Amino acid sequence: MNMHNVSMHVQVNGRACKEYTHKGMSFIEARHGTNYTVKIKNDNPYRVMAVLSVDGLDVVTGKPAEETNTGYIIDAYNSLDIKGYRISDDNSASFIFTSKGKSYVQQAKSNAINAGVIGLRTYKENYTGWLTVTPTYTVTTIPLTSYTIASNSFGNMTTAVGTAATTVSGTTTATNNCSNYYSSATARLSSAPNASSGILRSMNVSSDTSKPLSHKQFDTGTGWGSKLEDKVTRVSFEKGDMLVEMSVYYASKEALVEMGVDLQNTPKIAKDPVMPKAFGNYCTPPKGWNG
Predict the structure, then answer these.
(1) Are residues 35 and 166 in the same domain?
(2) Which of 19, 123, 278, 287 could bridge 49 with an S-S bond, Cβ 3.0-4.6 Å?
(3) What is the pLDDT of residues 226-245, one digit of tens each?
């Protein structure tokens, strides 16, 4: 999934899970007992804050996703693998697909209605020290030129004709106020007090031709796996405007089939709708009509 130069993919064993589109949403198959990571890539020329929620819980705080939650910082043109729920600055607990009843959101006595969704919000950085460009110019003046027009049938005419032309050639001197601004590609946890977390939208997807999906159809959640060495450092980050919000939904293969997700990605072709037509040709007389 990719929007505004930010991409998010769920990975198992280092490979992105295949995504299926259904009713305008992205789905992946979740196999119980399997660990996964969430890879986020920032292809923008500036840092972003990535705020991730799993089953409606912020992966840093373990609390319901709210605007005041913190997030991970991803440098320009870099990526980050979020491996699990953060325990400390040094460790996290790996994400693992499990039954909804054994999920962390269920055990934390939060709203299990959100089990089965991974949400991401990314924010631009408010930063005033961007590159400042100061132009310098060199001005050259071409003097007025006089010349005589040759004589003709009206007599001799000597006329001062010409233009004063000015050309400008310029160079620019760049002053970089953000030297060493982008540091290593290692993601760092923001310490900004107003850092915001993503809030999942309620799942209310409907279709004109089929029954709306229900949270009851999702049979999978995310639990706590093994403890991982997963170090972060804290840096300052002033949150700016939200850049993108995206979600990916997951469930077992059986549940996806029940929802109508096409796991085979069967090629499709449009069919002509059978609808009443407002305009046509002349009237066809009914049988037996003689006028």
Answers:
(1) no
(2) 123
(3) 999 999 999 999 999 999 99
